[in-house]
From TrEMBL, chain A:
This is NADH dehydrogenase. Pfam families: Complex1_49kDa (PF00346), NiFeSe_Hases (PF00374). Ni(2+) binds at residues 65, 68, 353. Belongs to the complex I 49 kDa subunit family. Signal peptide: none annotated. It comes from the Bacteria. It comes from Lacrimispora algidixylanolytica. Its cofactor is Fe cation; Ni(2+). Fe cation binds at residues 68, 356. Residues 120-283, 287-359 form the NADH-quinone oxidoreductase subunit D domain.
Amino acid sequence: MGNRTIVPFGPQHPVLPEPIHLDLVLEDETVVEAVPRIGYVHRGLEKLVEKRDFQQYTYVAERICGICSFMHGMGYCMSIESIMGAEIPDRAKFLRTIWAEFSRLHSHLMWLGLLADAFGFESLFMQSWKLREEVLDVFEETTGGRVIFSVCDIGGVRKDIKKETLEKILGVLDRMEKELTEIAGVFLNDSTVKLRTRGVGKLSKEAAFELGALGPMARASGIEMDMRTQGYAAYSQLDFKPIIDLEGDSYARTKVRLGEMFQAMDLIRQCIGKMPEGDIKVKITGSPKGEYFTRLEQPRGEVLYYVKANGTKFLDRVRVRTPTFANVPALLETLKNCSLADVPILILTIDPCISCTER
Amino acid sequence: MSILRMSKTLIKNLLHGPFTIAYPLKKKETYERTRGSIGISIDDCIFCGMCERRCPTNAIRVDKARVSWSIERLQCIQCGYCTEVCPKKCLDMENQYTEPSFGTVRDVHIKCTNTQSPSES
Ligand code: SF4
Ligand code: SF4
């Protein structure tokens, strides 16, 4: 047994631009314990609900996270709609699903790039981000924004997608699918990449369950849990199955996310095929009164929205439990007994989003 | 061979040239919906103050007495809510971003209400 050393990791670290700090307790090169600390980017967005009325807060909710911005807006809108008993038009549901799945695609592509960057494969990183750019262009064309869309509204969506644009999207998907298949092959089969991911950071099914892991992290350990199966938005009308893997290592997590990307493309195609005609928004009058919990599946896992309204324009409370927060205990578990060089990759495999964790 | 997986992609890339846009020389096309900045047709504005009350970031100031409408450019988040609530539909979302700047920028628009030509006022 060697001497124990503490190596600070973050809050600024080249591997990820988000501020999380870990004290890594090392024995020689092996991590025996990791102590996390967050709290560097707290913005008080939940408190802001007292100062902005419930309609204005739609824009605030979207800005909780820069990657799953659409799904945050959607979770908030769904909660208010449920409190007010509003049923949104079918077309709006499908449009929401399209944007949500594109968000998943862009989030996972970004993550793939960061992973490649973490093990020093620069050109693979560039390839992933090149693909992601196409998704951002679709967003800009359909919503007007590349990162923050401002299209989800209480009662539906603000903007429709024209038929020609939908056809164009199908073309983009075909092109992307071809290119993604190529780079997916590199991630899954290249021997140098496999050396860095295979067998690294194993999380057993039991541990994942006990520690409350979510999203791809849990699914890669064999837990079949995907909030989309609840059938919110248009998911009840689409045909899909949660993608799971049994290995529970970094390689499995990469595989699950890659599978979800192809699944997202498939879901978008299904949506475009089944898209009904009609209105995109119902008019909402009055103010909400009551409380509601919404659960939905973000790229990083399940997000939980709690909204409490008192019948005035201002809400009492909005609470968001983001997936990264729930995945931190699982991360600490995977860090135990790994080597120092693997720490960046392991932190990345939970796909951390610290800004939304701290809100 | 599993270590040469990337070669095909790499060779394709070499032949293709850069995928990025050589920015100052070539500009990226904006889309019809691109949210760049808020513009106003000040002549149609009735100074009702709706946009000021609804704006989530308090970027807009409306002064009925001085018939002026102003916007803090860096405070505006381009959400487009004001364009939706304006009863006269005189606000619109333009595709181009505003110029970069170091300090705060307040764009003031004043409606010309007198009959003199604007140069005398
Ligand atoms: S809402 Fe429209 S009409 Fe009213 S003050 Fe604003 S810009 Fe003018
Ligand atoms: S776009 Fe949004 S933030 Fe900007 S002035 Fe209009 S309402 Fe305010």
